Amino acid sequence: MKSAFTLLLVIGAAGAPQLGCSDDAATPDDDGQGGSSSSSSSSAATSGSASAASGTGGGSSSSTTTSTTTASSSAASSSSSAAASSTSSGTGGAGGEEPLGDEIPAEIPTPTNGDGEIRNETTVLRNAANGGQNVYDFNNQKIGVNNTADCDDGEGQKTVFEVEDGVTVKNLIIAGGLPGGNGIVCKGDCTLDHVYWEDVCEDAATNSVDGATMRINSSIALHSADKIFQHNAKGGSTTIVTNSYIADFGKLWRSCGDCTANGGPRNLIIDNVRVDGVKSTIAGANQNYGDTVTITNLYVKGGYDESDDKPKICQEYRAVTDHMGESEKLHGGASQWNTDTCRVSKSDIKSW
Q: Residue by residue, what is the 3-state secondary structure of 8-43?
């Protein structure tokens, strides 16, 4: 068990080189809109599995013509990353043991396309109804985008993949640093399964359509001075993060603090997730918009220090809309437990 997570320790301590490609590290609590930009000129992707032999990951980097392909139904390759198994005491509580039988990737796989592909424009993964397919398996190809905005500038980076409603993305590596741009933007329900972010630039992934559910499973995201997952969608939309490893970041998830026509509710569900190097908080939720955060089986490297409230687990905010003032932390920024917004118990925060 101890050796199975040696790689996690290596990733958390060293990981990919930090390229300084996230929001200002000195201001990880910036709660602007974020995470929703995308290029107006996009390339339509073909199946990653269908094009694995050529190493393209689907689609020409500058084409605006959609290529229709047969939907891929291949399962995610669990052999592409080391799986971590663990045991559970069933008692919970700070310092509790690890869960039983759920797969958490231990390392980012070696890309199957060498140094990776940097595309010129955002790639749109169209669903079957729009001439694409509902499952894209990239066979662990690494892909980024030719991004012109510096990661440290905050917002406005080019999106790597725009994912249409109902699409599942599997076995994909998002290139680190500047080519990581604004990562993945989900334009409806989406599933990101075994997706790996080497070095988050703006955001890793964004939930952007009201009422939609964005699921992240068995994934790894590393190095972000601010947010990992941005949640802009309203109307009961949900972000679910399971069986994943997140390291060296400001916030794991943030409900938009100042979006145009801002509102809610937005929901977050976290289960069986390991974190390391939390600079700010796990979750920032807007109390005034009815957001909810549900956390179970969160494993914090070194444990949660209750005496210093570090790292912060769930913080409640009073958000604003249309740049009318600034989003503010409630309760002095202290972690909240078992409230209508922060539906998390200390017994669900464990150590590894």
A: HHHHHHCCCCCCCCCCCCCCCCCCCCCCCCCCCCEE
Torsion, Cα 221 138 182 61, to 10 degrees, reads 150
How far, in Å, are 123, 161, 273 from residue 118 at the CA level?
11, 12, 30
Q: Is the peptide bond before 109 cis (omega within 30 degrees of 0)?
A: no
**What is the pLDDT, as a whole number, of residue 154?**
61
Count how many Cα atoms sit within 13 Å of the Cα of residue 72 in the half-sphere of its side chain. Answer: 23
Pairing of strands 328-329, 312-318: antiparallel
CB 155 within 8 A of CB 33: yes
Whole-model pTM over 0.85: no
Checking if the pLDDT of 93 tops 90, the result is no
In whole angstroms, give the CA distance from residue 315 to residue 333.
6
Q: Residue 328 phi/psi, 5° resolution?
A: -130, 145
Identify whether 28 is preceded by a cis peptide bond (ω within 30 of 0).
Answer: no
pLDDT tens column, 141-177 = 999 999 877 887 766 799 999 999 999 999 999 999 9
CB 252 within 8 A of CB 225: no
Distances (CA, A) of 270 to 120, 173, 294, 313, 324: 34, 22, 6, 11, 31
**Residue 283 in this model has a pLDDT that exceeds 70:** yes
Cβ-based neighbours of 116, under 8 Å, separated by 6 or more:
141, 142, 143, 144, 173, 175, 179
More confident residue, 274 or 59: 274
- Our CA dihedral for 46, 50, 51, 55, rounded to 10 degrees, sits at 120
* pLDDT above 60: residue 107: yes
* Spatial distance between the Cα atoms of 3 and 1, rounded to a whole number of angstroms: 5
Which structure tokens are listed for 37?
């930009």
Structure tokens at 329: 């932390």
Tokens of 280: 């700010």
Determine which of 41-55, 171-185, 255-269, 326-340 has the lowest per-residue pLDDT on average: 41-55
